[in-house]
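Training component of the fellowship. As part of building independent skills, the fellow (R.M.) carried out the full modelling exercise for a liganded target. The chosen ligand was shikimate-3-phosphate. The inputs are recorded below so that the supervisory panel can assess the work.
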Amino acid sequence: MSDQPWAAPTADGPVRGTVSVPGSKSVTNRALVLAALGTDGVTRTVRGAARSRDTTLMAGALDALGATVTTTEGRAGTLDIAITAPPVFRAAHVDCGLAGTVMRFVPPLAALADGPVVLDGDPRARERPMGGIVAGLRGLGVEVTGEALPLTVAGGPHPAGGEVTVDASASSQFVSGLLLSGARYARGVTVTHAGERGVPSLPHVAMTVTMLRAAGVTVTEHPSRWHVAPGPVTAPAVLDVEPDLSGAAVYLAAAVATAGEVTIAGWPEGDLQPGGVVRRVLEAFGARVTLGAEGLTVRGPGRLDGVDVDLHEVSELTPTVAALAALAARDGASSRLRGVAHIRGHETDRLAALVAELGTVGARVAETEDGLEIAPGPLTAPTRPWRAYADHRMATAGAIVGLVVPGVTIDDVAATTKTLPDFAADWPELVGAGVGV
Ligand SMILES: O=C(O)C1=C[C@@H](OP(=O)(O)O)[C@@H](O)[C@H](O)C1
Ligand SMILES: C=C(OP(=O)(O)O)C(=O)O
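Fellow's submitted model of the complex:
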């Protein structure tokens, strides 16, 4: 973290520009895992990966476990990461950082190693929920020491697999993690979710299923139950990574907040990420959204509408939506964000963090059992620097607020490198120059 808070640029008019966002960390990290699980000795290339902390951590984890990982410059600032699966994974120490995808996707793969694998991460990572992975692995015949990070997975290298019931209401990544390596378990893996709440972020489980199937794995889906059959894992030789749509939403929010116009180049046609939901959420604020040859374009309204949205399926959008809701409140509109109780276990407790940080600019935000309520009222000069809590999306939420509230500074803009390595340079350029970045 730098000692100096970062001055968030204030927009002196509508923000206009075209933005190319980095590849999705969710797609990249699944692709890296599937390449490392390959059963045919073929080298696979994950093309267009972001140079972000989470993807670097995943590549580092797979390297430590014995995969051959070669990173080269890709097009437009991206990375191409070539991965060859090892004959057998080896004992290792794995740094998960603060990456949910690393801490939940790697332990099931570590069970295929021929020795113990120790996983640890940032201080906050030790507080993030791991129950579904730990209980799930034990139910599948894998010895795990610890209930959260630091964890040791004993290694096998031939885990039995079978059927397991877990409570995945704290994170969809419990399900995704168990499924991703499931084909390499002797009996495959069947995961049933049983919990007080449903599995959040279900489109991310759908992403896992789609990418497994593209890797030749047989997956059967039922409500709250998924089965991966044992068998070969043979992902395509080149795995292309789509732009990160949750990252894109931050740049699009600049148009929504300032009655501007922002285009995201290369908006994906498929439904690997919930792009349609991103569009609908921004439209709820009164934005106009169009998809054309040049990409997805959002035009912001003069006055923002309040929103009443269930973000259970797209919970990682919550900080962005909360920032826009605070701006709508300034226009006299109240908002309600629902279905996101589990984000108390994200990079930070995002509900508490949003109440505290939006409060520093005078927003009247109350935490509910499963979300936030934002009451109408003016925004005022910040009382102190906006805290990022090492959370990329808290940092970008502060930047969105800073577009219209002069004087917002962010204590740790480097937190954005978790998924958006160039944010601290791109954002001022977009806000100030009104040209493509
Ligand atoms: O599998 C994934 O790539 C992700 C799943 C979601 O996690 P939760 O289900 O814990 O919300 C999402 O919020 C996270 O940013 C990425
Ligand atoms: C929740 C998030 O990340 P993670 O993959 O670390 O859970 C996120 O990116 O908003």
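The panel noted the following from the submitted structure. The mean pLDDT is 96. The chain has twelve helices and 22 strands.
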